Amino acid sequence: MAALKNLLAKIDYECIQGTLDKEVSDIIYDSRKVVPDSMFICIPGAIKDGHEFAADAVTAGAGVLVVEKEVELPENTGVTVIKVQDTHYAMAFLSAAFFDYPAEKMKIIGITGTKGKTTTTYLVKSILEKAGRKVGLIGTIEIIIGDTHIHADHTTPESYLVQKYFRQMADEGCDTVVMEVSSQGLMLHRTQGFTFDFGIFTNLEPDHIGKGEHKDFDDYLHCKGLLFKQCRIGIVNCDDAHWEAVTQGHTCALETYGIDTEADLCAKNIAFIKEAGNLGMEFDASGLMNFHARIATPGRFSVYNALTAIAICRHFGVTEENVKTALLTAKVKGRIEPVKVSDEFTLMIDYAHNAMALKSLLATLRAYEPHRLVCLFGCGGDRAKSRRYEMGEVSGRMADLTIITSDNPRTEEPQAIIDDIKIGIGRTEGKYVEICDRKEAIAYAISHGEPGDIIVLAGKGHEDYQEINGVKYPMDERVLIQEILEGR
Description:
Elements: E1 2-3, H1 4-7, E2 14-17, E3 23-24, E4 27-28, E5 39-41, H2 54-59, E6 64-67, E7 80-83, H3 87-98, E8 107-112, H4 117-130, E9 135-138, E10 142-145, E11 148-151, H5 159-171, E12 176-180, H6 183-187, E13 196-201, H7 217-225, E14 231-237, H8 243-246, E15 253-258, E16 265-275, E17 278-287, E18 291-295, H9 300-313, H10 320-329, E19 337-338, E20 346-350, H11 355-366, E21 373-377, H12 385-398, E22 401-404, H13 414-425, E23 432-434, H14 438-447, E24 454-458, E25 465-468, E26 471-474, H15 477-487
Parallel strand pairs: 4-5, 5-6, 6-7, 8-12, 8-13, 9-12, 13-14, 14-15, 15-16, 20-24, 21-22, 21-24, 22-23
Antiparallel strand pairs: 1-3, 2-7, 9-10, 10-11, 16-17, 17-18, 19-20, 25-26
Helix pairs in contact: 3-5, 4-9, 4-10, 11-12, 12-13
C-alpha cells in the first residue's frame, strides 16, 4: 500500500472529488484488472479510451481515479477523482513513486534509433557483466531480471511495467539497466518519471510512420530526440545525417562516435573476417579508447554496434580486455546469429522479415564473397501481399539460391503465401526451390551446403513458435537444426 499524497508528490493535479487521505493498493490502467482500493488511470488509447470504463472501475473497487477529462460516475461512491493534464505522462510519475523510485538506485542506459538497439543492449550487458556488474535488460525480445526471462510485448513497455521491472531489478541486486527506447515509448511518456544516466542514438531511417504510429518523419525524429532531454550524458552516432536534428535542444552533455566522421570515438582499419565457417569483423578503436577489437558478427553495422557499446561501457571503467572478450563472445538471438553446422560453410539465423531488412542482410553477407549466397525464408500470413512480392524480388536478385518455405501462415494456406513470393521472384532470373515444411527446407539447405556457401534462415529470428490458425506451436530453428544434425 502507498499513501495517495506521496504518489502525487511530483505531478501537477487537481482533486475534483473525494479525499487525499487514502492508501492505494496498486496502479491499474486496464479496467478488467481493477482490485479493491486501487488507483485506476484513464488512458486514452488508439482503439479504446479508458475514461469510458471509469464507472466500471469504481464498481470493481477502485478507490482513486486519475482522469484528464470529465467522466460519468455512480453517485455516493466515495471515490477520489484526480484530474491531470495528461494521464499517460502522470502515470509514469505515479508509477515511479508507487515503486519507490527504483531507477535512482541503479545506472540506467537508454538506446534509441531505427536499427541496432537490440544488438547493442546485449553487447552492453555482456561487456558490463564481464566487468563484474549485475545488469538488467528491457528490450524487443525479452526482459531479463537475474535468471528470469520475460517475453516482451513492446520494445518499451508501459511506464508502470518499466517501473515494476526496475523495482524487481533493484531488489534482485542489479546495479545497471540497459533498455531499448522506442520512439513510441518516448511519444507516450513511458520513460518519464526518471532520468537516464546515458542516452544513445544509433541511426535514423523512415520507419513506424502511419496510422497509430507517427504522422510523418519529422514527428518520428522529434520523438527520438526527446531522449536527449531526459538523460545526463548523450552518446550519438555522428555519421548519421540526422544526429544534429535529433539532439537539437538537448539538455545533456554530448559525446560522439563514428566511422566516416571525426568523432570522440572512431573505428579505423576495418576488415572482414571469414574463417572456418565463421564470419566477423575487426577494427581499431581510436580516441576515447584505443585498442584492436574483433567481433563475431558480420558487417559494417556490426562495427557500429560494437563502437556504440564501447562508447557506453568506457564510462563504467571497463578494461580493454573485458571489452575485447565480450565483443567476441556476445550473441543476440536471431540477429545475424551464427549456428555452427560445418567448417565448410556458414549458417546464420536472422529476423529480417521485410524487404528493407532482407536487402540489408543479403548485402552484408554478399560482401564476404561467398561461393553461393543461399536465402531461406517465408512470409507471414494475414499481412500485406506486397511484402511477399518485394521479399521474393529482393532474394531473387541478391541470392544465388532462394529456398521458399513457410513462416507464420496464421489463417492463410502456406502454399498460397509461397505462390505470392514466387510472383516476386518471377520478376528476376533468380533460382529457387520451394519446400513448404520449414524443417524439411532447413534440412535441404544444410544437406546441399557447398564449401564457401553462406546460408541464412530469414524471418523467424528470435521467435520460438509457428502460428497456424490462431495457435502458436513450438518451433525454434536452433532446435530444428540440432534435430537435423542428430538425424543425419
